[in-house]
Design brief:
Layout lengths: L10 E2 H11 L4 E5 L5 H8 L4 E4 L3 H15 L3 E5 L3 H4 L2 H10 L3 E7 L15 H5 L6 E3 L6 H13 L5 E7 H5 L1 E2 L18 H13 L3 E5 L6 H14 L3 E3 L14 E4 L7 H8 L2 E5 L17 E6 L13 E4 L2 H11 L9 H14 L12 H11 L5 E4 L3 H9 L8 E2 L10 H11 L5 E6 H6 L3 H7 L4 E7 L4 H9 L14 H7 L3 E4 L3 H14 L2 E7 L3 H16 L2
Helix pairs in contact: 1-2, 1-7, 3-5, 3-16, 9-12, 10-12, 11-13, 14-15, 14-21
Length: about 550
């Protein structure tokens, strides 16, 4: 008898690539394709992965990164070679600094024989090296499964970030063996911190007189949220958050002291100055410092998935490295309350801060001051509603004045802090959670950097409110310019008619013309569905009065 060989027929490289993406659970690819992606595009057409066609690669990257941030799974984006790939660079930095799992796929000319010389060709793999955890060119279709599995593993492994694969045109068209082995994701558990390090942290907490809890970006996950509520309730220790730690614990909690929207000089910094121990959960030096450590000052415990990067402003005396939720749960079970803990001064800071935040929230001036804008948005957003902030002066006001009630309900970036990310981030949230109310909050400057994505949002039939806080200038830089006593120069411009601009894309536009109109206009926009753009003129004179003058007088007197 003779045995017949029943090996599978060969499979095209791009088909194998998409098959591996499906195996990894990829549901969307955000893309601006080029001719070098055509094989991959055809393979996607016949797959169960949905192609989201964007109008700029940067926006595709921001959407993919936000998908990763919200789900913990890898977000995938695709570009062509050359200018398409370079347009992904900002999104790569956004994902890596912000710890968002993202896979970038870029095309390339054929590498085995090309008749176009160096037309559009740059070394994309090397370009991405400083910005990613992993960057490789695929030079053989047979290696696609291994390279993709490794890329996804590294993107999602702590600390998450961006990875990049270059798929040349001829490799995408190349035939690979039909029985190419596809590697299934492993079910690796995160390491748990040692009991010895946990016990040492517990001893430090119990021996401190004024311990204070700081919650950072790495804690912005459901299990960690639950563990932190357990710790705060068990120990009574007050807490504050970094900008990217907002909402990890409901900020209506009586032990919440505030947000470190500034690096120094706010009410919360009075509490930090008074504390003799800061228990830092999930913060690292990538995010703008919430406070500055000094030699001989307070003790700091670093609780995170990975060890601390030592920096002149951050050099913790003790580290608890391992799964954050497990570490915090252990501390909640074993540390509890101490008879000599004294939180009276910390809670006095909370009272003063709360009173200050309540000021001017009903101010009727027009253009509208930031305190009124933040208050009215909080009033009309549901508890589980999501706001996605672009980068500008309003981000500081919202971080400081907007209480978040759940994790990942305030999406902001305090790591790369790139303008142009607010609208695409909100679009990703609206796609993922169509049952929730979602609002993009952008300055006029940041909005115009990716405003073309309104077309994408309309085409996808998303339900999204886009609020543009308009001062016809790069407002944050004007504030900094004034801080440095420079004359105003070079930061003012004109904007389009935003209402007509929205209507040109098939969206609905609104212009708020008095403070009293703000809340009803936002309520109407949230209820209407579809893409609703709301222009809100802002009076930024409060920046200098509050942040440069008032806080220094009030906080020093606490």
């Amino acid at each position: 008898m003779t045995s017949s060989n029943h090996s599978s027929p060969p499979i095209k490289g791009s088909d194998l690539f998409v098959k591996v993406l499906e195996n990894e659970g990829v549901k969307y690819v955000f893309a601006v394709p080029g001719e070098e992606n055509l094989d991959l595009l055809e393979s996607l057409r016949t797959s169960n992965i949905e192609l989201i066609l964007n109008r700029h690669e940067q926006a595709a990257g921001f959407m993919a990164a936000t998908y990763g941030r919200l789900t913990g799974k890898v977000g995938v984006c695709m570009s062509t070679l050359g200018p398409g790939a370079t347009n992904l660079v900002t999104a790569a930095a956004y994902a890596t600094l912000g710890a968002m799992p993202m896979l970038m796929i870029s095309g390339q000319k054929p590498i085995k024989s090309s008749k176009q010389g160096l037309f559009q060709i740059i070394d994309t793999v090397d370009l991405m090296r400083p910005l990613t955890k992993y960057t490789r060119q695929i030079s053989n279709a047979a290696t696609i499964p291994a390279k993709l599995r490794e890329a996804v593993r590294l993107a999602t492994e702590e600390r998450p970030g961006a990875v990049h694969l270059e798929l040349p045109e001829d490799i995408a068209a190349e035939q690979a063996a039909g029985d190419a082995h596809i590697f299934h994701p492993s079910d690796a558990r995160r390491p748990t911190a040692s009991v010895k390090s946990l016990q040492q942290a517990c001893d430090m907490i119990l021996s401190a007189k004024h311990p204070l809890l700081m919650i950072g970006a790495g804690a912005n996950r459901k299990r960690v949220s639950q563990a932190l509520v357990h710790l705060v309730n068990a120990s009574g220790i007050p807490f504050f958050t970094t900008q990217m730690g907002k909402g990890v614990v409901d900020e209506r909690h009586p032990r919440y002291l505030g947000n470190a929207a500034l690096s120094a000089g706010d009410f919360v910094h009075c509490a930090i100055d008074h504390a003799d121990l800061v228990i830092n959960v999930g913060h690292d030096v990538v995010e703008k410092p919430p406070f500055f450590m000094t030699p001989g000052g307070k003790q700091v415990i670093h609780i995170n998935f990975s060890p601390a990067d030592v920096d002149p402003v951050y050099f913790p005396q003790h580290e608890v490295v391992g799964d954050i939720a497990n570490s915090v749960d252990w501390l909640a079970e074993h540390c509890g309350q101490s008879d000599h803990h004294d939180f009276s001064n910390l809670m006095a800071v909370k009272l003063a801060a709360d009173n200050h935040l309540a000021e001017r929230i009903h101010d009727d001036r027009f253009p509208i001051i930031p305190q009124r804008i933040v208050h009215d948005v909080r009033e009309i957003m549901p508890d589980d509603g999501i706001i996605a902030l672009d980068n500008g002066m309003y981000k500081i006001w919202f971080a400081r004045n907007y209480p978040a009630y759940d994790n990942n309900t305030v999406l902001l970036d305090n790591a790369l802090a790139s303008m142009g990310a607010g609208l695409p981030s909100a679009m990703a949230a609206a796609m993922l959670y169509p049952h929730l109310k979602v609002m993009a909050i952008c300055g006029d400057g940041g909005f115009m950097m990716n405003s073309q994505e309104l077309e994408t949002a309309v085409r996808l039939k998303l339900n999204l409110v886009v609020m543009i806080i308009n001062d016809n200038a790069y407002g944050m830089i004007k504030w900094k310019q004034a801080q440095d006593d420079f004359p105003e120069f070079g930061l003012d411009y004109q904007n389009p008619d935003f209402v007509r601009y929205a209507e040109a894309y098939g969206a609905t536009g609104h212009r708020v013309q008095s403070a009293a109109e703000l809340r009803p206009t936002l309520e109407k926009a949230l209820a209407a569905g579809g893409i609703q753009l709301v222009e809100v003129p802002v009076d930024y004179s409060e920046n200098r009065r509050v942040f440069n003058e008032e806080l220094s007088q009030l906080t020093c007197n606490l």
